[in-house]
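Sample entry (324 residues):
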Amino acid sequence: MNIISKKTSQNDLKNDYLFSTSLIFDENIDKLWICLRNLSTESINLEFLDNFKYIKGDNTWTPGNIFSLYWVGVTRIEIRCISTKVSRMKKKIKWKFKCDIGINYYKTLNLFRITQNNKTLVKIIITRTEEKNNSIDSSSSLNYYNDLQLKILESHSRNLKNEEKELISYESCIVNQNYKKIWNQVIEFKNISALSPIPIKDIKFKGQINEIGSFVKFVYENENIKETVFLKVIKYESSEQKKNWLIRYETIGTCTKNIARIFEFKMIIINDNKVQLSYYHIFPSKTNKNMFDLFCIKKKEAIIKIKKFFEENADKDSIIKYSK
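Predicted structure, serialized as tokens:
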């Protein structure tokens, strides 16, 4: 855990800038994003915050959602999510804080991937909501709030270090093929399952596979395991206005530690006939390490096959014939 200098840069000398605080985390940016974008955890992990409530929406990272919490002995705080931007190297979310005691400000969370060591730089920037805010625009107040933001980041870092680490498996490739043809294959679970790193059979669906809340049921079987697995579609994005398309499944109702908790396909559109396709899994922390290592080897083989089939057979009705 490394503290970064809190001195301002030339870009910070804007009228709305108040202060910034930074910290380097040992965690991967993707896992850290899942943790830090969820402000409800702060009311659990920080003793001076309490009574978290949703006012509009059901999370703290979707623009337009509103929620509140109580700073014990000080004030009630109403918070609105203003904007969210996500890319592989940088993730950013901005909230507006409105306190009953008249202190209002913007808080911007920035995450930067540090590629050399898989760590993440986290930077909090606090800006004013109006041209002048005499309630907090004093040196002593700014130092206090700056130290408070640093303590919050340090608390997150300690809690993450104390957690058992989930195992993350990620593979990607560049595919030279029309993005729509690729995506039509990706959402056909039976097609893509034929190239899965794990043996899958007896696939059944409930609902449309491209709708949040739909389910996939299949049997996972090898020489050591036979288990019925249920996946729920928890996120689906394929907007023509965005370059990032994805479908994400969450494992439901299974207790095995050797089944991924999260399955995700993501496609980044480079141009009409070239994409980056990624294949992402999150396993529970107690997953057998040898099993996980074998899965990663098979997944490397699978992503090569996926690229080959997409490029050679994308004009056909299916990538490969699924057999029950």
